[in-house]
Amino acid sequence: MKLRLVVTLLAVFGLIAAACGDSSESSGGSGGGSGGGLDIDAILGADLADCADAPSGDPIKVGMAMDFSDVVGFVDIPGSNLVPYVAELANCSGGINGRPIEVRVAEVGDDAALATAELLDWGAHFLIGPPFADFALPILQTTEGKVPLFVAASTEPTLADAAINSYLVTFDDHQMSGAAAQWALDEGITRAIVFTEGEGIPYTGVNPDAFIAAFEAGGGEVVSIQTYVWAADTDFSAQVNEIAGISENNEVVFSAALGFQVTALRGQLEGQGLDALTYIGTDALDATGIQVEANNEGIAHTPHTSISAGDRIDSLLAGYEAAKGEALESRGFMALYVDSMFVGIQGMLDCDCNDSEKIGEAVKVISGFQGLSGEITYDGTNGIPPKAVPINRIVDGEDVLVATIG
Predict the structure, then answer these.
(1) Contact assessment for residue 230 and residue 256, using Cβ atoms and an 8 Å cutoff
(2) d(Cα 161, Cα 145) in Å, to the nearest integer?
(3) Cα dist. 26→4, 373, 400 in Å?
(4) What DSSP character marks residue 250?
(5) What is the homologous superfamily of the domain 174-303+391-405 according to CATH?
(6) Strands lying side by side in the sheet with 221-227
(7) pLDDT at 29
C-alpha cells in the first residue's frame, strides 16, 4: 500500500477472520511434505505462566527486516513486536518439533541491504520484510532470490515473484479492488464514480484501474473519473461541481483515498444534495481509521482481516496486551506478520530442512494453509495467494463484516 504522503497523518489516525477466511478455523495444512502441519491453536493457547519444558533443538531463525519510519512504522513496528511474542507462545508450548523459534528484528533505516546482510549472517532461515519496493527490492538483491521473503503487509503485485522467493501474504490490489467492484454490483449498483491519481500509478492508480475493469466487466458503467492528490486533498469543490451535473444520486464512489479524505468528499457531495451515494474504499480506510471518522455511517472498505470479539486474532491481540501492557495498533494488519512466520515455518516442516533455497521450494507448493488471515496457497501462483476479500461496512456505528468476495 502506498503511504509515502501519510507521514503527518500517522500521529492522528489509528492504523486488518472470517473475511479472508474464518478466523476461528483450525490451523495448519500445506501442500505436502514430510513435516506435517503447524498446530496454530496449540501455539495461540499457550499460557506463558505455565509453560512446557523449554525446547532444546536447533533454533528456527526468523529474520525481520522492518521499516520503522513514519511512512511504514504504523504496521512494521507493531508487527515486529507481535511476531516475537508469538514465538514466545510457540516456545512455551514446546517449540516446533522440539525446536525453539528465535526472532531477530533489523531496522532497514537507510540501508536495507546492510540490515538484510546482518540477518543472513545471523543465520535467518527466511525473512519477513517491509511492504514497499523502496526497501523490499534491495532485500531481494541481497538475498539473490535464495531466501524466502514475505512482504507481510504489501498488496503491491509487482513485489510477488516466486522465482526469486518473494511472496505476498495477502491479496493484491487487483483482487482487493475487483472485490469492491463485485460487492457494489451485488448491491444492485450499476453506476460508479471513481477517484484516481492516474492510470497505472502504484496503489492510488492501480486500485482504481482494477475497480473500473471489474465494474465494467460486470455490466456496470463508470460515469465519472476524477483526479485528486492522495493523502493531501480535502477540498473537492471542483470535482463535486462536475459530479453534481451528472450524478443520479445512486452511484457507488470508489477510491484508494484515506479515511479523512473520503469523509470530506462525502460531506461536500451531501452539500450538493447527493445523499444517497454508496462509498467503498481499499485497505487505506482501515489503515487510517474510518471506524472512528465522523460521518462514516455506511462507508464500506476492504480490510485484510475482519476481526470479531473472541476470535483467534482478537484473542491473540488481547493476550499480547495483557502480557506486554500495551495494545498494538494496526490490528487488521497484524495477522499478516504472524502468518508470514507460520508459512515460513511450514515450508521448513514440509522440506524437513534448514536450507533456505529448499525452504523456498517448499513454500512455492504450499496449498490450503489455514493461517490467522485466512487460507494461503502459493502452489500454481507467482507468489500472490488467491485469498477471499472481506467487505466491512460501518453499520449503526460499528465496523462489521457484510460480505466476503472471492
Answers:
(1) yes
(2) 9
(3) 37, 12, 22
(4) -
(5) Response regulator (3.40.50.2300)
(6) 221-227, 191-196, 252-255, 278-281, 300-301, 389-395, 398-405
(7) 54
* Contact indicator for 166, 182 with CB cutoff of 8 Å: no
Under CATH, which number does the domain 20-171+309-387 receive? 3.40.50.2300
What is the rounded CA–CA span in Å between residue 111 and residue 134? 10
Render the burial of 293-324: b for 16+ CB within 10 Å, e for the rest.
beebeebbbbbbbbbeeebbbbbbbebbeeee
Given its phi and psi angles, is residue 50 left (phi above 0), alpha (psi -120 to 50 degrees) or beta? beta
At residue 71, the pLDDT reads 79
Sign of CA dihedral 143, 146, 147, 150: positive
According to DSSP, the residues that pair with 391 across neighbouring strands are 403
Instruction: Name the pTM for this structure.
Output: 0.88
Cell of 222: 463508470
Q: For residue 371, what is its C-alpha cell?
A: 493461517
Q: Are strands 221-227 and 166-168 parallel, antiparallel or unpaired?
A: unpaired
**Residue-level length of the chain:** 406
In single-letter form, the type of residue at position 220 comes to G
Q: What is the pLDDT of residue 7?
A: 33
Residue spans per domain, the chain: 20-171+309-387, 174-303+391-405
Q: Are 301 and 285 in contact (CB under 8 A)?
A: yes
**Model pLDDT, residue 5:** 36
In order, the DSSP letters of 188-219 are T--EEEEEES-TT-TTTTHHHHHHHHHHHHTT
Residue 203 Cα to chain centre, angstroms: 13
At 23, which amino acid appears? S
Distance CA 300, CA 392 (A): 6
CB atoms within 10 A of CB 205: 19
pLDDT of residue 184: 98
Check for a shared fold between 20-171+309-387 and 174-303+391-405: yes
pLDDT < 70: residue spans in the chain = 1-36
Q: How confident is the model at residue 33, as a pLDDT?
A: 41
Name the burial class of residue 47, with classes exposed (0-12), middle (13-18) and buried (19+) by CB atoms within 10 angstroms of its CB. Answer: exposed
The DSSP call for residue 8 is G
CA Rg, the chain, in Å?
Answer: 21
